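Hi R.,

Here's the chain you asked about this morning:
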Amino acid sequence: MIFWKSSKTETGPRKLTVLTVDDSSTILIILGKLLSELGYEVLQASNGLEGVHMAQAKTPDLIIMDVTMPGMNGIEALAKLKENPKTAAIPVMMCSAEQTGKDLDRAFQLGAVEYLIKPVTAERLKAKISKILPPATTM
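And here is the predicted structure, written out as tokens:
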């Protein structure tokens, strides 16, 4: 688990927080770097269960979650998040190399708000997030 350090101050505005959930440490590092550069506070989890627990404890402003993970996959984790009143309103963006299929359909049925296709680029990530959250520097 990686926590990206925040530059928020005691008197400054609260930074928006994004939780990334992926079993690939490479993807977590890439997303963490891109999100930090965009001005977001980043939390990271390496599997679905850890992601659900972190979301319940930290209540992020957005969750970006891989679909395919060992143990609790992203679809199962999304279902758990949407069942819980504390996390049900958190927008979830699913992330996968697959562009179509039952996982995509199921994610939207369960309440995912967006779907990010891997490989992730800074431009695509920024465009997708801008549909969900205000710019990180305005909060």
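One quick note: Strands lie at 17-21, 41-45, 62-66, 92-96, 114-117.

Cheers,
M.
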